[in-house]
């Protein structure tokens, strides 16, 4: 399989690339530091990436950013940034990727646990994550029989917790989360939100 990993240079991206590279042709894409350059908040950048890589069997997205801050301090621009980047960036990967996906291919998007379990400061992030899950389910219905669409919802990643000096055992190791993405690529299901939590 030819698998395009968007966000390949991040923590989860590196784990996914490493996990899949032994058995598949993996193409890494990110804003910097990978073979293919892409900014998912920019439609033209997404179109250029697909033109460069050609036909793929699967697309995995672990890219995208949303603003984490208390509700009272979130500006219109903060919400617009979050929606344009993590939500519409991933929606556009599906929309513009359809002609580049092989028949029976798959797209795996990334939401996050804050869609189901918001915390203080997560108003924008929770909104975006829930939107990704709703979009993914709807896209899977419309693309049934052509392209599978699933969403991975990671919880806290142990390595991220370590970086902010929290207990890593409260999270899941990045290598374990990568296995959930592999399952979404290889197993025959669609329209599912797959939790990657302890």
CATH architecture: 3-Layer(aba) Sandwich
Number of β-strand runs: 7
Instruction: Report the structural category.
Output: alpha/beta
Rg for CA atoms:
16 Å
Segments where pLDDT lies below 50 for 5+ residues? Answer: none
**Side-by-side strand order of the widest sheet:** 3-2-1-4-5-6-7
Average pLDDT for all residues = 94
Oligomeric state, counting identical vs distinct chains: single chain
Can you lay out the helices and strands and say which pair or pack?
Blueprint: E1 2-6, H1 11-21, E2 25-30, E3 36-37, H2 43-53, E4 56-61, H3 76-97, E5 101-110, H4 123-142, E6 147-154, H5 158-163, H6 174-186, E7 193-196
Parallel strand pairs: 1-2, 1-4, 2-3, 4-5, 5-6, 6-7
Helix pairs in contact: 1-6, 2-3, 3-4
Task: For this entry, give a set of tags.
alpha/beta; Rossmann fold; seven-stranded parallel β-sheet; 7 strands
